[in-house]
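Mods, move this if it's the wrong board.
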Amino acid sequence: MIIDTSAIVLKTIQFSESSLIVSLLSEKHGKIPVMARGARRNKNKFGGLLHPGALLDVTYYYKSTREVQNLSDITQNRPTWRINQQMEKMAIGLATLELCDQLCHEYEPMPEISVFLNEFLGWLHATESNPRYLFPYIQFRLAQLAGIGIAWQQIEQHEESLVRENEHDSQYECYLNVENGTIAFKADNGLSLGLTKSQGDYLRYIAEGKKARLLTVSFPADEIRNLIHHLDAYFQFHLDGMKGRRSDAIFEQIL
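Not the wrong board. Structure tokens:
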């Protein structure tokens, strides 16, 4: 069966001296591995477009009994080449692709993640803003799209004051309660991770629809780094098989 669909390149693996195995996030089949024969040759029909983060229209031959499908043809859907020209863009782009690769299962359509990733990569290519602090937002949104979203625990203003008085000796502004998936001013009885004021403000901007502020406010780099680790712990608690990202070695250089 010949399949024509839009797709995002999640990663590539060298196969033989001339070919690549490419992991695509496709509209029709979700994450799907395809064989790009001859893609490593200097002159090939894929034209150097098979790189992580590429937004493509692809044609492949699909057979349900085959683990790796055969890639036939590709064309660029939207440009993303500017992402690899700036360290901050490349780092957050690779980290986002690697997280999506872990969240998506082969041959299981994930349309909401696909749409989000397509829009984000297009924005990342075009933006003049520095995205260095944006990855916790990506984690937060992908948790929502993967069905394990984090919710703010509603609290009345007078109750908030009482909680803060009782917690006056604590260094934490609020807590990520991992087991029940909430952010609250008080830790629950399960696994809870304390969040500083800067970390709490960061997540509050997301909750209040003020994500543009994440691009203009200067957050302490070590606190952003710790917030990323907290959200990674949240993913690992709720989803089996989540691993550390190899791209973090690059990502750490921008914080």
